[in-house]
Write a structure and sequence with these properties.
single chain; mainly beta; 5-stranded mixed beta barrel; 8 strands; globular
């Protein structure tokens, strides 16, 4: 499922601009080493505002999922059914996104996944998705 990368400003601009180059970045707290996702101005563990951006390995495990069978809007009518999953990344943070691929509807909790950045027909990158490594 391809979704455009939104226009952004501030802190999220760094995250989204790196998606366009094929990198999914996470934030890592300099004082306490906690790693998190989605972009925030302070560490959710200790409150420090000193952090670094680190590349995600792209590996994770399905923690939970749901099958969306009814399109929430006309824009999704051709996509149903699709999977929305919460994935525990190897680095620690939990990330939410869609699982794509031929075996997406067979997903199970605990399945290993890989992050992918899909491209549209013109090669423009979109928002990250997950794909089963078993597929």
């Amino acid at each position: 499922m391809y979704r455009l990368i939104p226009k952004s400003t501030g802190l999220s601009k760094h995250y989204y601009s790196n998606l366009e180059t094929g990198a999914v970045l996470l934030q890592s707290c300099n004082p306490c080493a906690h790693i998190w996702h989605y972009p925030r101005p302070v560490c959710p563990a200790c409150g420090a505002d000193s952090f670094s951006w680190i590349p995600a390995s792209g590996n994770g495990t399905v923690a939970s999922y749901t099958i969306v069978r009814h399109a929430p809007s006309a824009a999704f009518k051709d996509a149903v059914p699709y999977i929305v999953a919460m994935v525990d990344l190897k680095e620690g943070p939990r990330m939410t996104g869609t699982i794509t691929g031929d075996t997406a509807l067979e997903v199970q909790i605990g399945d290993l996944i890989k992050i992918e950045i899909p491209k549209d027909s013109s090669g423009k990158p979109g928002m990250p998705v997950f794909r089963s490594v078993l597929a």
